Amino acid sequence: MLEINGQTIAFFVFSVFILGGALGVVTSHNLIHSALYLILSLFGVAGFFVLLSAPFLAAVQVLVYIGAIAILIIFSVMLTRSMTALRQVRNQQWWLALPVVVLLFALLAVGVILPVWGAEGLIGSEPVSDIVATTADLGVALVDGNQYVLPFEVASVLLTAAMIGAIVVARDDE
Amino acid sequence: METQCIDIVNTLAACLVAGGADPNLANFLSILMGVVLVATLPLVTVILLIWVERKVAARIQDRIGPNRVGPYGLLQPVADALKMLTKEDITPAGADRFIYNLAPIIAFAMIILMWAVIPFSPVHVGADLSIGILYFIALGSIGTVKVMVGGWSSNNKYALLGAFRTIALLLSYEVPLILALLVPVLMTGTMSLQDITFAQGGMWFIVTAPLAALIFLIANQAETGRAPFDLIEAESELIAGYNIEYSGFKFGMFMAGEFLHVFTVAVLFSVLFLGGWWGPGVEQAPALGFIYLGAKTALVYLALLWVRNTLPRFRVDQVMALNWKVMVPGAIAVLLAQALALRVIDALGLTPVRGGFVESLPQTVILLGVNLVLVFLFLNQVRRQGRRQRAADLAVVGETRPVVSVPAGD
Amino acid sequence: MIPLWMFLLVAAALFCIGAYGVLSRRNAIAILMGVELMLNAVNINLVAFWRYLTPLNMSGQAFAAFVFVVAAAEAAIGLAIIIAVYRNRRSVVVEDVNLLKW
User: Which CATH architecture fits C4-96?
Assistant: First the structure.
């Protein structure tokens, strides 16, 4: 069905990183280990972006998620001292959450993904074309008046507001 | 893919196929050879770097340096490696073993990965990524993970505090670094390092963007944790910062990683601003590119060592003030001014099309003028900031008093 | 080439694992990590659809870039709030933040 070439091997390796890391995040008893599993998972997602011909997004994923957000999470774990040997990992409703989540996955897989894009010959078994727009096109799309310049500017305002808000909320009232 | 088997060095895959190997396997082996070569180059270099570092530091400090092991002390790195290999492998009690051992590996791996995108000659480059500069920045930001993990897993309060200070420094100085790196991207319209080197055929970028080069060097001096920004390590004060609890070969990997990081910064500076492998006769004989790049890198590395061994250390609040009040506004100003100047040059029709030396002269003169004005303003701002800081410090201390007071009646 | 549904399946699995993390953990920071996993699943979906169906129109990558921005802003504010709550209540377990509960 699938020819065993470099891409397939890379896909399976990165899938293992992603799903293994995610399972480690939600089940680990040590919060620092959870954060490190999160870094593993994010690294796998960056690998997926490379497989999907989006190198710019892969580099930004490493830069923003691993280099900033994961560090932020580790910092706050260290500043709120309840990290190692959590007394109880799961809350009172986990027995309800688990079947709901499994049901959601089954619904998505069987009800949505496989019927529309799953069978051979339907749309999506092969990419439409191998000609891919480049990073320069992304740059143009973000500042072009007909494309995404307005969300781009709003995103900068959002980041400024988030920065100021985070400083104000987390500041020590002296 | 129908290349002929010309010689074993340049067309390894074709020769293997001609010898009867499977094409996929031949391709894989040839890529593997390339990876091994590109990864071995920094590893071999770090051996030499340990010797250079200690000898130059010694000479600047008016002493001789290692001269016992081998001629001129050249075998000193071997002695150092042997010493570190035979030391006891201590893990502190209560430390998290797996991530304690992971931190030096991440430290070293991250630096070697940076060498994948460096163009050594017009035809030799590990992987000519279209996002070369962004790749370098992303690897730099993984460096903060190693600090955090190393500081935390040592199970030591002081290592943790050292790690916090280090990360504050590293994250702050990434901002002017990225802004300064955008200037060569602005001038060539591409993030690929090989294309940026090709674009410097007319004039090196250090002449057309000197302020961006200066900000790049200063920000990298902070990123690698070298003096005057070595409050990370502060060998005479804090013991060793986040790598207090590391000893033996793991500490050796941290140290070797730091030396190699400085060398990699020097290589990148040569590629981005000093014209990389450009030199007389390099188009006909591409192997000369290695020599030119090596010579430029050696010059920049010696200059960085000179700075490291001369300047005293900053305080942590001075470092932060320097970054947010001087470097970030300076970097933003240089980016805006460079973009504006390039637009004006484009409108005047002076953009060099083919990139010869004479043809790029008008653009060079205009950009150099803009940059010199900005350098003047930048240094003015630094001087004003320094004066304000000194006045604030004096207001706290009071009048300067004589150090030794003469006792009465003696 | 890998068929599209395999990418979508991995993204759906990641989303569901993240949802389980949000719904069943007691520590506020662990819940935030689950949210980050869900946002990453969305990103994989966006980029996979972009690559397989419309590789010439940059909408997919632009959307993914905006998801990055929103995720970063949300992580920063969320952690600031968690630290502020910790300073007042000395605990980051979400069940202990119950002053408004009936």
Answer: Orthogonal Bundle (1.10)
Q: Do chains C and B touch (3 or more CB pairs under 8 A)?
A: no
Question: Structural domain of residue B211, as residue ranges?
Answer: 8-389
B148 and A74 within 8 Å at the Cβ level: the answer is: yes
CATH of the domain at A39: 1.20.120.1200
Tens digit of each residue's pLDDT (9 = 90 or more) over C9-31: 999 999 999 999 999 888 889 99
Query: In degrees rounded to 5, what are phi and psi of residue B125?
Result: -150, 140
Residue B19 is encoded by which pair of tokens? 């010898």
Residues in B touching A134 (Cβ below 8 Å): 130
Q: Which of residues 48-67 of A touch C (CB under 8 A)?
A: 48-49, 51-54, 56-57, 60-61, 64-65
B289 neighbors B198 (Cβ within 8 angstroms): no
Task: Give every residue of chain B whose pLDDT is below 50, as ranges.
Answer: 1, 236, 410
**Cβ(A119)–Cβ(C53) below 8 Å:** no
* Nearest alpha-carbon partner for B206 in B237, B183, B231: B183
State both tokens at A105: 């996955």
Q: How far apart are CA B261 and CA B248, in angstroms?
A: 20
Euclidean distance between CA atoms B122 and B118, whole angstroms: 11
Domain count, chain B: 1
Find the domain containing A36 and state its range. 6-89+132-173
| Residue A57 confidence (pLDDT) | 93
DSSP-derived 3-state class of residue B107: helix
